[in-house]
């Protein structure tokens, strides 16, 4: 029996793996990427998911207000006016604090659009809740003068997100315990934040005009979107009023009926 020849080839050397060098720049870059992703997710939450949730809550609150108004109307109904539209609508009593006193409907903003209207225009107390806030210095629905309200355009439900889409002749409805007030959209205006004359009884009038008999609605929001450099203003003129006992105007029947 012969011996097998010895293996003269040396085994392959296993080279040790080089350790990955962790640099400060690399760690910083990864941290910035992670932070960027988180920021984008937060923006998506604020602009989409959160708006959907808040909008749903606002519709529920508006429905609760509707029920309160209807219950009050059923207990002491207002006679339905006959003939043409009433020339002198009832004036909604002034609200205090941040109390909700009305519901806003704008068919141009969607078939199921409705948001509560609350007293005041403070950011935390009213606007960040998603309500349309009433400027305390302006008139109430039904009164001669300017009923002015403000709302967010991009966050917190974005109740005025589509304000720039209004078209001449569009209807804007305000429901209170006194009934439904119908306004007809007239025009848009873009002004500086300091131009508070838009809140006057007659907007932008050089002097206060107490002789005017117009009943107006003024809606204000920031412009452009995601900026407060300007204000976008939407004006409407009072068209008609009807008591709750007459039912809602035909154009908002669907929105009134949705929770």
The tally of helices reads 2
Percent of residues in beta strands? 15-25%
Q: Structurally, how many domains make up the residues?
A: 1
Cα-atom radius of gyration = 30 Å
* Strand adjacency order, main sheet: 1-2-3-4-7-8-6-5
Largest sheet: 8 strands, mixed, barrel
Please report the total strand number as a whole number: 8
**What's the rounded overall pLDDT mean?**
85
Helix content: 10-25%
Order of helices and strands: HEEEEEEEEH
CATH topology (level 3) name: Sortase, Chain: A
* CATH class call: Mainly Beta
Shape: globular
End-to-end distance:
99 Å
* Secondary-structure-derived class: alpha+beta
What's the architecture, going by CATH?
Answer: Beta Barrel
Low-confidence stretches: none
Q: CATH superfamily, please?
A: Sortase
Question: What are the defining features of this structure?
Answer:
259 residues, alpha+beta, Sortase, Chain: A, eight-stranded mixed beta barrel, 2 helices, 8 strands, 24% strand, globular
What does this protein structure show overall?
With 259 residues, this protein is α+β, with helices and mostly antiparallel strands. It has one domain (47-257): Beta Barrel (Sortase, Chain: A), CATH 2.40.260.10. 22% of the residues lie in helices and 24% in strands. It has two helices and eight strands. An eight-stranded mixed β-barrel has the order 1-2-3-4-7-8-6-5. A hairpin with a 6-residue loop joins strand 7 and strand 8. The longest helix is centred in the N-terminal third of the chain and has 52 residues, at 24-75.
């Amino acid at each position: 029996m012969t011996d097998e020849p010895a293996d003269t080839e040396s085994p392959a050397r296993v080279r040790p793996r080089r350790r990955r060098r962790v640099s400060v720049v690399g760690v910083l870059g990864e941290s910035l990427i992670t932070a960027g992703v988180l920021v984008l997710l937060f923006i998506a939450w604020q602009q989409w998911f959160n708006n959907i949730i808040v909008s749903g809550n606002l519709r529920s609150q508006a429905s609760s207000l509707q029920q309160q108004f209807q219950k009050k109307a059923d207990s002491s109904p207002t006679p339905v006016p006959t003939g043409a539209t009433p020339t002198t609508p009832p004036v909604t009593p002034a609200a205090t604090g941040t109390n909700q006193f009305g519901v806003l409907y704008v068919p141009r903003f969607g078939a199921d659009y409705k948001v509560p209207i609350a007293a005041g225009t403070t950011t935390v107390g009213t606007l960040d809740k998603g309500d349309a806030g009433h400027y305390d210095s302006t008139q109430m629905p039904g009164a001669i003068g300017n009923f002015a309200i403000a709302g967010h355009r991009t966050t917190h439900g974005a109740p005025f997100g589509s304000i720039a889409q209004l078209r001449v002749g569009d209807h804007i409805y305000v429901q209170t315990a006194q009934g439904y007030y119908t306004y007809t959209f007239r025009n848009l205006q873009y002004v500086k934040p300091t131009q508070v004359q838009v809140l006057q009884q007659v907007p932008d009038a050089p002097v206060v005009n107490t002789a005017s008999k117009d009943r107006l609605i003024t809606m204000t929001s920031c412009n452009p979107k995601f900026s407060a450099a300007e204000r976008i203003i939407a004006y409407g003129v009072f068209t008609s009023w009807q008591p709750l006992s007459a039912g809602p105007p035909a154009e908002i029947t669907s929105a009134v009926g949705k929770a």
